[in-house]
Amino acid sequence: MRTDSSPGTLPAREHLPAGDAGTPVLDVVIPVYNEEKDLQPCVRRLHEHLTRTFPYAFRVTIADNASTDTTPLVAARLEAEIPEVRSVRLEQKGRGRALRTVWSASDAPVLAYMDVDLSTDLNALLPLVAPLISGHSDLAIGSRLARTSRVVRGPKREFISRAYNLILRGSLQARFSDAQCGFKAIRRDVAQVLLPLVEDTGWFFDTEMLVLAERAGLRIHEVPVDWVDDPDSTVHIVKTATDDLKGVWRVGKALTTGSLPLDRLTRPFGDDPRDRELTDVPRGLARQLVGFCVVGVLSTLFYLLLYSLFRQFCGSQPANALALLVSAVANTAANRRLTFGVRGRGGAVRHQAQGLVVFGIGLALTSGSLAALNAATDSPAHSTELAVLIAANLAATVLRFLLFRAWVFPERRESVPSPVAALAPRTTAPYAPLPQRPVAPPQPYQTTQFRAGEAADGNWSGVTDATMRLQPVRPHDTDPGDAR
User: Fold this and answer.
1) Is 178 within 8 Å of 145 (Cβ atoms)?
2) I want to staple 109 with a disulfide (CB 3.0 to 4.6 A). Which of 33, 260, 336, 431 is the partner?
3) CB-based burial of residue 112 (10 Å sphere; 0-12 exposed, 13-18 middle, 19+ buried)?
4) Whole-model pTM?
């Protein structure tokens, strides 16, 4: 992964300030659909736990996904009775749509969500968000598959969860352990850049967000959780599994083609302020060496296989040239993506042209070695030819890495501020103190209508109040195309 700065690169992580009393640092979203029975005990229990244990100001946001029962009325009553509770009404269903809408509009620097059934023990909430507040991590997830997690659920759901995890590891090279646990958090600055890249609006939203974050090199913190499964869950397993597999195929295809601009999510080298003052520091050298060695070993094996194949039809020099040409093209493409983290098609032709120049240097070394061997003996053994070619390729490999790093894929240097500018006081902060909201007595219920698509796109021109009220339920609010 490239670590150099680009116009979309995220800034270094900072420890979030505590802010003024009443300023929300954490916004916990509870997406609901027809949860009139469980909503009130869930919100009251969560509010009581946060009031008793959480050291920062917080907010609980109820995201109603077009419920058709009395869920909106319950949410409105909770909003009127508890100052820290807000409610949002969406006219379309989809957990991902609800999270994108609320997270995109929230002013809290840390955003989280949990399922309304509270299957996860709330004692894991503070360990979940603490790494985000401290600036250590970008995202945090609860894991039911960690060794120290304690989980109570049926064998069918256990099998589905572990099978889905194996699919993600095998197809998308995911390294996080639990994608679908309804217990996650993200920093707002990361969400503002990451959420526009996430297409899914349903249950695959979590997985897509985590895969993209992991591929971009963001830090994901995992918290083992105690989990008791809800036997009355309304999730449609078959439809959800089908949609998830479609999402895996779509994301895998996008990652393979390099169509996602993940470089805008990279962090600069060194999040410690002292590290940012360093100049001319090699970036990612150790990781690049490991990646280059792995690609080099595979390329060498590929080259030897091609040489042995071509040698059956032509002489040693043509066979060497053809094998080296084909393997050089594959080597440049692999190093471009895997070693130096260059994504997208921009500059690919130029990189291949420069790679061919490097190939010419390697060809001169290997051809010269073969010429010297043929001059020393009239008919060298095939094993001797291979040994000479291996030695020559090792020398060419070292030179190839140096040329790749310094010429083909050079590091883009960041501009270093002058000492005067460095000493100048900062005029902005990552998170400016938010105005304190006065606690007023409950007012008559009012509504402000907005659509989920407008909120997700940041179009809030029609919303004049920072507090989003519920939209009364109408029979045609449901989305017939979503069976969940």
Assistant:
1) yes
2) 431
3) buried
4) 0.58
Question: Average of pLDDT values for 242-256?
Answer: 85
What number of other Cβ atoms are within 10 A of residue 232's Cβ?
8
Partners of residue 31 on adjacent β-strands: 63
- Over the range 388-415, which residues count as b (16 or more CB within 10 Å of their CB) and which as e? bbeebbeebbeebbebbbeebbebeeee
- Say which amino acid occupies 353: A
Record the tokens describing residue 26, joined without a space.
């954490």
Q: What is the pLDDT of residue 255?
A: 83
The closest of 352, 463, 481 to 404, measured between CA atoms, is 352
| 324 half-sphere exposure, CB direction, 13 A CA radius | 26
Q: Give per-residue pLDDT as tens, 130-152.
A: 999 998 999 999 998 888 888 88
pLDDT score for 412: 57
Q: Which two tokens stand for residue 7?
A: 């116009």
Cα gap 133→18, rounded to integer Å: 9
Q: String of b and e for 321-351 (b: at least 16 CB within 10 Å)?
A: bbbbeebbeebbebbbbebbbbbeeeeeeeb
Picking from 89, 44, 48, 94, the residue whose alpha carbon sits closest to that of residue 71 is 89
Matching residue, tokens 């996860």: 120
